[in-house]
Amino acid sequence: MNNSNALTSLILLPEVLNFMALHENDDTVTIPLKYTTKVDFDLGAITQQIELRQKAKKKIKTFITASILLLPKLYEQSTHEEVAQYKATFISGHSMLDATAGLGIDTFFIGKNFKQIICLESNSSHLEILRHNYHQHHFKAKLLNISLEEFLKTTTEHYDVIYVDPDRRPDANRKFIDIDQCTPNIIELKKDLLDRAKEVWIKLSPMIDINTIMSNFSPHVSVLHCISHHNEMKEILVCLKSGEQKTTYAASNIAAANTTYFTSDYNNTKPLLSAPLSYLFEPNVALIKSKLCMEYSIQNNLRVIYPNGYFFTTDHPEEQLQGRLFQIIRVLPFKKGLLAQFIKQNEIKKANISCRNFFWKPEEVKKQLKLSDGGEWYLFCYNDASKKPITVWAKKLSIIK
Fold first, then answer.
1. 336-345 — which CB contacts under 8 Å span 24+ positions?
2. Residue 152's Cα: distance from chain center in Å?
3. In the structure, what pLDDT confidence band is assigned to residue 7 with cuts at 50, 70 and 90?
């Protein structure tokens, strides 16, 4: 069932709402087997809605109500609501244009900071789903069934913020990462967008290298913000402004206990090298992605243990380091006989293995040392400044989740 109006009508039927409520936690594989001959509605469409809602309860829990509509593609590209809520803490103004609305999660949270909101959605079925869902939440926005390219040709309006989340799945069978392969092509529209907004915020794939972003949007990048959620990279958020800008680089990790944030105007600090000391520190993924690790290390009394690396060490760790902290138990060269002896002496059966700047991957190290995954031991493998293979055996002290 692809027609959004038909899907809306179906879901709002009392018997369907009751069915979804009764089976909201059921195994969706077994629902069609049990109820195909017992209901008069499209069980496949409703089973899909139940399955999507089960996933959505973790990702967009406060947006989900009994009558909200979801589609797989819209859900997959939607922003995690905790990330959207976080972005709402620093994006604000009077007027906002959401150029690629989709399921509308970002605007649902960020839009509360604006008096005037316009949402563009080129897919008419997706627009009807957006209209229906916003109506359920009494969220007011002007919704237009038009592409960004066409809209820019027909308007001279100016906005405080234009927000763009390019579609990385314009082809149903492929997922794109490169900016110029997404829809709309923001690189081609850059000038028009800057002419019509004080700030243009662009949500990009976390897989894009930040140097690529800078080469495509410089000198207009005001902020380049790498955002992770529970130490999983979610997106790179870029703010463009007219004229030549001095770029602020930022790294945030959103977690249940607290959200960490680090920012700098410079992300090319020279590393300070050291042999492993008492503790090993591994930065969170947002710091790594933003290339702020070296700047962060200088400000937090850290030294890197191999050139341009991501394993750091210190004798005196700060209290709120943004990543994982381990107490170093032993440092050994990667020699199988020596390592086998250490493993036997300490009765190590399992280890969490991490390799950087190393000739083997964790799976290969695990096989070489006859270890399985998990346990209290952490094994870090790297090549030092002299290109000698080194292992650090450690136990975790703290982790930002």
1. 336/368, 336/369, 339/369, 339/391, 340/369, 342/393, 343/369, 343/371
2. 29
3. confident
Domain ranges within the chain, ordered by starting residue: 4-59, 76-246, 279-399
pLDDT bracket for residue 400 (50, 70, 90)? very low
DSSP alpha helix (H) spans, 279-361 = 285-290, 293-299, 336-345
SS3 category, 140: coil
Start-to-end CA span in the chain (Å): 39
Does residue 172 carry a pLDDT above 50?
Answer: yes
In one-letter notation, the amino acid at residue 96 is M
Determine the average pLDDT of the residues in 211-234. 97
Type of residue found at 278? S
What average pLDDT does this structure show over 129-139?
94
Residue 401 has pLDDT above 50, yes or no: no
CA distances from 202 to 166, 208, 266, 308 (A): 8, 13, 21, 29
**H-state helical runs in 155-185:** none
78 to each of 70, 85, 100, how far by Cα in Å?
A: 11, 13, 11
Q: Is 329 helix (H, G, I), strand (E, B) or coil?
A: strand
**Mean of the per-residue pLDDT values of the chain:** 92
pTM above 0.70, yes or no: yes
Residue 174 CA to its chain's centroid (Å): 19
Tell me the one-letter amino acid at 292.
L
Residue appearing with tokens 């050994």: 332
Residue 258: what pLDDT? Answer: 87
Mean pLDDT of 179-186: 90
Class of domain 76-246: alpha beta
Residue that the structure tokens 């009807």 belong to? 128
8 Å CB contact between 46 and 20? yes
* Residue in this structure with the two tokens 């007011």, named with its chain if needed: 140
User: In terms of pLDDT, which residue wins out, 312 or 5?
Assistant: 312
Q: Measuring CA to CA, how many Å separate 104 from each of 75, 91, 121, 252, 361?
A: 10, 16, 10, 22, 40
Give ∠ CA 148-154-157 in degrees, rounded to 5.
Answer: 85
Question: How far, in Å, CA of 283 to CA of 382, rounded?
Answer: 16
Amino acid letter, 270: K
**For 241-388, where are the E strands, in sequence order?**
248-254, 260-264, 279-283, 303-304, 312-314, 323-333, 350-355, 372-383
Token digits of residue 68 = 């909200």
